[in-house]
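Let's sit down with a protein and look at its sequence and fold side by side. Once you have written the record down, we can walk along the chain together.
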Amino acid sequence: MPQTFTRHSYRDDPNVESFDDQFPIALMDGHCALCSAGARMIDRLDRSQRVRICTVQSSLGSALMAHYGMRADDPESWLLLDDGVAYHELDAVVRLGRHCGLPGRSLVVLLALPKSWRSRLYRWVARNRYRWFGRADLCAMPAPGLRARLIGITDQ
């Protein structure tokens, strides 16, 4: 995501359908067990019930990924939209942690690593996540709280 985007730039993109963007939105792989575990953690830790989750496989998710120059099928693709600004890689994870109370806020220690190290660490885990953690269907989870957070999944 080397290009710079203005805040809420996706609103002007005709390929991105309109959606409620008043809350942070985590875009993640709906087939990844690690991402599914992360979604369950968001549901457990975000007591404000603000963070929404969108899979990159949905039409909304893939359009947002394309808007930011990312591919939904790229294992390194993960985004957080927060107040109209896109964050990716570990910076997105740290930003998301701020919305998830004390355990999540502790992720700020990752910012002590140089940006290049954070990027390498993120990419290493992203490339190996299926091998290490397997696959899971994020949208098949029965927890009502998590289901209420999911957006853009009608076409999956």
Summary: Residues 115-133 form the longest helix (19 residues).
